[in-house]
Design goal:
By secondary structure, this protein is an alpha/beta fold. It has 12 helices and 8 strands. An 8-stranded mixed β-sheet has the order 6-5-4-3-2-1-7-8. The structure holds S-adenosylmethionine (SAM) and iron/sulfur cluster (SF4) (2 copies).
Length: 346
């Protein structure tokens, strides 16, 4: 049976049928018009953590950050069907709820995902952001215990998540997804992270480490025993799926993730064309790891110059895994993947 984003989640409809159709409708139009399906707004370059696998970390110059009202102009011009509000650490911006309101003033489109480490998340903030229009909270978790603090260089973070995530999940909105970036350090923990998601009552999405951000290959899986462990862990993950779609990645995405590590890369990237990044100061970038920058008005030039010639296959992060597939797959698998917290009960 084809997955559908239209069904009920434990009696709670996360995205109404009308809203789902509008999101998919806009996605289809964008696909045909070669407009981006997903836009990731990096609303700040600063961060509360210093993660070992990332090139962000600590304070940055924030004087040139786009003010909230400017985001409306970008959404009107790019017309994405899915938006990620990311960074750096987006919750470092006191006006992040205002940004979300500017992104979706009065419409269910774009479907909006806050990608955050949750160091600064509180219950009132979560409720304020939901009210502002966040549809999905993507919370990074690399280890199912306080090794997470060491990897993110943020003492006390795991304890904070352990106390907050289950409490907010118990409110019943079913909009929290743990985001686990698979590295050589946590490959043995893939199922333990799934256990944690179950224990906390939330969903889980796997992503894959790329050495492109930092140039460090130590966290990439390449040794035969690492690849065997990855396969063992993901085989078990496949047996744990159920009708609730709590494992958000499509089976084809996890299959491609294995291939990505085995091959040392993944060709066919659509950065700039199907998805793009808006930097904190308002420039367009093809992705968060390619730094050719273009003004909003020159998106077509970016597609021509960058996307048309792009040979990079150095990551398989979720934004790619959702958008490198065929149009049909996008409609029936990828979009429902993005809306997976609304796709329970298929
Ligand atoms: C760049 S962070 C920005 C949002 C927020 N600070 C957070 O950590 O969730 C977004 C995601 O990228 C992931 N990430 C960081 N470095 C990465 C890398 N080298 N390869 C793949 N994913 C990476 C993080 O684990 C996180 O889930
Ligand atoms: S992964 Fe996120 S939390 Fe970690 S340094 Fe990068 S931006 Fe900050
Ligand atoms: S594969 Fe694509 S998304 Fe990934 S770093 Fe290269 S250009 Fe960017």
């Amino acid at each position: 049976m084809l997955p559908s984003p239209f069904s009920e989640a434990d009696g709670l409809r996360k995205v109404s049928l009308a809203a789902s159709l509008r999101i998919i409708g806009r996605g289809s139009l964008n696909w045909l018009a070669e407009r981006p399906i997903v836009v990731s707004f990096e609303v700040t370059d600063a961060c509360t953590c210093y993660c070992k696998h990332c090139d962000h970390g600590g304070p940055r110059d924030e004087t040139r950050n786009l003010p909230p009202a400017e985001y409306r102009r970008y959404v009107q011009a790019l017309r994405p069907c899915v938006v990620q509000v990311s960074g750096g650490e987006p919750l470092m911006r006191d006006d992040v709820a205002e940004i979300v309101r500017a992104i979706k003033p009065d419409s269910p489109v774009p479907y909006t995902i806050l990608v955050s480490n949750w160091t600064l998340m509180t219950e009132p903030k979560y409720l304020e952001l939901r009210d502002a229009g966040v549809d999905q909270f993507s919370v990074s978790l690399d280890f199912p215990d306080d090794r997470h603090d060491a990897f993110r260089v943020h003492p006390g973070l795991y304890r904070h998540l352990e106390s907050l995530v289950p409490r907010l999940a118990a409110l019943g909105h079913d909009d929290i997804v743990l985001n686990c970036c698979i590295t050589s350090e946590n490959v043995t923990e893939i199922n333990a992270l799934a256990d944690k998601a179950r224990e906390w009552g939330v969903n889980l999405c796997y992503s894959a480490y790329s050495a492109r951000r930092t140039g460090c290959r130590d966290y990439f899986l390449s040794a035969p025993e690492q690849l065997m462990e990855l396969n063992r862990q993901l085989d078990r993950v496949e047996t744990r799926r159920d009708h609730t779609n709590w494992i958000v990645n499509a089976p084809t995405t996890l299959e491609a993730t294995r291939q990505y590590f085995a091959d040392g890369g993944a060709p066919g990237c659509t950065a700039g064309r199907r998805f793009l990044v808006v930097t904190a100061d308002g420039q367009l970038q093809p992705c968060s790891m390619q730094f050719s920058r273009y003004p909003l008005e020159q998106r077509e030039r970016m597609v021509r110059e960058f996307s048309g010639a792009n040979q990079c296959g150095e990551c398989y992060v979720s934004i790619r895994s959702y958008l490198d597939k065929s149009f049909r797959q996008l409609l029936w698998e990828n979009v429902s993947g993005f809306l997976s917290v609304s796709a329970k009960g298929n």
